[in-house]
Design brief:
Helix content is 62%, strand content 0%. With 103 residues, the chain is mostly helical.
Length: 103
């Protein structure tokens, strides 16, 4: 199967030949009705090929997603505080500050 750009290139060649053979412009430089404008069509085809390539690229990413890094690669666990030590120190302090109901 031909690539998108090869197919579009063939279409552009046909449009250019048709534009040259058909004249492409009226007597006052305006477009004649029913005539092809090769330069405008080439620009449109070029944008269409770019869009098709981007769409193909997104489809390839959807079919073969990139691997995500492991969480240990993203987070430096050595920089995290020691929660056990904090709880052991703060637990009795917070317990002594709590109000006890004496009846």
């Amino acid at each position: 199967m031909a690539k998108n750009s090869d197919s579009i290139g063939l279409i552009i060649a046909v449009v250019v030949v048709a534009g040259v053979l058909g004249g492409g412009k009226g007597p006052h430089g305006a477009s004649a009705p029913g005539k092809l404008e090769p330069l405008g069509l080439i620009s449109d085809f070029h944008r269409m090929v770019g869009f098709m390539e981007r769409l193909d690229s997104m489809g390839q990413i959807a079919l073969n997603p990139p691997k995500l890094p492991e969480p240990s690669q993203l987070i430096n666990t050595d920089a995290l505080p020691d929660l056990d030590g904090i709880i052991n120190v703060m637990g009795p302090l917070l317990g002594s500050l709590s109000v006890k109901n004496k009846e």
